[in-house]
Design a protein that fits this description.
single chain; alpha+beta; Enolase-like, domain 1; 5-stranded antiparallel sheet
C-alpha cells in the first residue's frame, strides 16, 4: 500500500462561485513552508467567460522557481470542481508549467485559462 499524499487531493467548496484547490496554497507560501512562484489570472480575460457573461472568478497556479514544476492551484468559478482536475494531474504527475502551456486546449474554453496561467508562469520561473 502506497501512502496517500494529501497535497494531490482536490478540495472544493460548493458555493456560488465554487472554490477548488489542490496542492500547496498561498498560506503555505506566505508561511515559508515552500518557495513558489505564482500567477493569478482573472477569468474575465477568458474568451469563453466573456461569451457566457462570466465576470468573476480566477485561476491561480503555483510552481517551483527554477524548475517550473506545478505544486498547486486554485480555481474560483462556476464548476471549479471540474476545472481543478487538470491542475490536480499536473501536481500529481509533477508536470512543469511548460508542459501545460504546450498542451492545446479547446478554444474558446474555460480550461484555456489554466494553459494561459502556465504560459505566464513560464516567463516568471
Amino acid at each position: 500500500v502506497v501512502p496517500l499524499d494529501l497535497k494531490g487531493v482536490c478540495a472544493n467548496v460548493f458555493t456560488d462561485p465554487e472554490i477548488a484547490t489542490v496542492g500547496w496554497s498561498q498560506n503555505d507560501v506566505d508561511a515559508g513552508l515552500i518557495d513558489a512562484t505564482s500567477v493569478h489570472l482573472p477569468l474575465a480575460t477568458n474568451a469563453r467567460a466573456k461569451m457566457v457573461g462570466l465576470e468573476d472568478g480566477f485561476v491561480k497556479l503555483f510552481c517551483r522557481p527554477g524548475t517550473g514544476i506545478v505544486i498547486g492551484g486554485v480555481v474560483v468559478a462556476p464548476k471549479a470542481s471540474e476545472l481543478i482536475y487538470p491542475i490536480a494531474i499536473a501536481v500529481d504527475q509533477q508536470l512543469s508549467v511548460d508542459q501545460i502551456a504546450n498542451s492545446f486546449t479547446v478554444y474558446p474554453s474555460m480550461t484555456g485559462s489554466i494553459a494561459e496561467a502556465a504560459r505566464r508562469l513560464h516567463l516568471r520561473s
